[in-house]
Amino acid sequence: MSSSSGDSHLIRYYSKLIETYIQLSLYEEAEATATRVLAVDPSNLIVRLKRGHARRRAGHLAGALADFETVLSIPPKPDTAQALHYDEALRQRDIVVDVLGCSYLELAYAHPSEIAEYNAPSISPSSIEARSGIPLRASLDEPLPTNCRFYNHLGCRRGKKCLFSHAPDTRSIRDDLGKNVCLYHLVGKCKWDSFTCIYSHSKDNLPSEHVMENDTSKVAWWTNPARIETVRQLIEKRDARRKKIHEQIERAKKRNIDNNKKSKKRDNNSDNKDSGDRLPDTNTTAGNRPAYSSSSSNSNCDETLVIDWESDSESEGELQFEDVESPNMDLLSYGIKPWEHEEAKALAVALDNLHT
């Protein structure tokens, strides 16, 4: 895998996306996303460990055990993050072995083909070398702030040149055609109709069930009312938490702007007073106030916020508050001003006609 900062940013984004899917109990989506990342970066132990977590919680115990054993097969360097991942994989491996009642070796001996499939993509040196020349951006869609409406509906002709995102994100899940289906629509919370929403509202290309171990299957979560309610509640809690953080940041920004204005005013008043003490009152006439200069060498105070709220934006790999269910934010996603809500659908239809 390329070690460029762009590739690192891309892997970090997808790693966080997998983690978010797990937090929302979207385990099948987390597993599928992790598998796509491992296809181009099979040596990424963090993503493989997260896939093991997703598989265990989804009930794919044999697959989870395969992932944990793969992580444990790489000796960690002491006092590094890899050592922490190793310890976590060891703990999770013991949990799965206890539930299955057999070890990984016993399972691999009894079901070699299934275990080989679960281990894919392989972490062997030959597989890593074969994939090392594959550019990540050619295999994984690069995330951008706003998802592409055309891509998720009729299809986008611009491909990699598109200025909007074709990548999956935490507001959607990917169907079998690669389109991003609105997560809020699946839980009955999307405020837009199928014309206006930038994500697809079609379930036609979503799998109706997921294949489990021993040739069993379970229905997809969006067809299970109990699972829909669980995911909906988790989404609401996440959005409320992020909205609260966003409001705290906005208050901090406003407070710092107000403090800067007060500081400038104090500096200006202080400089004006000093000028009056030093200079003869040549411009003063009866009934008139002195005409002092408002310029000051200290008038440009430090604009740095007390809370450096953008300091971790690069490491986050995504817009920190893109998931807040904000009407204004959703409208702006379409290039529509909040007060132009009534024209949203008409504009969406016009864009479709223009694109076709």
From TrEMBL:
Stored InterPro entries: TPR-like_helical_dom_sf (IPR011990), TPR_rpt (IPR019734), Znf_CCCH (IPR000571)
Residue stretches of biased makeup (Basic and acidic residues): 249-280
Residue span of region Disordered: 249-302
Listed SMART domains: TPR (SM00028)
Protein name, entry field: TPR-like protein
ZnF C3H1-type span: 142-169
UniProt organism field: Lentinula edodes (Shiitake mushroom)
Domain C3H1-type: 142-169
Keyword Nucleus in record: no
UniProt keyword list: Metal-binding, Zinc, Zinc-finger
GO MF terms held by the record: zinc ion binding
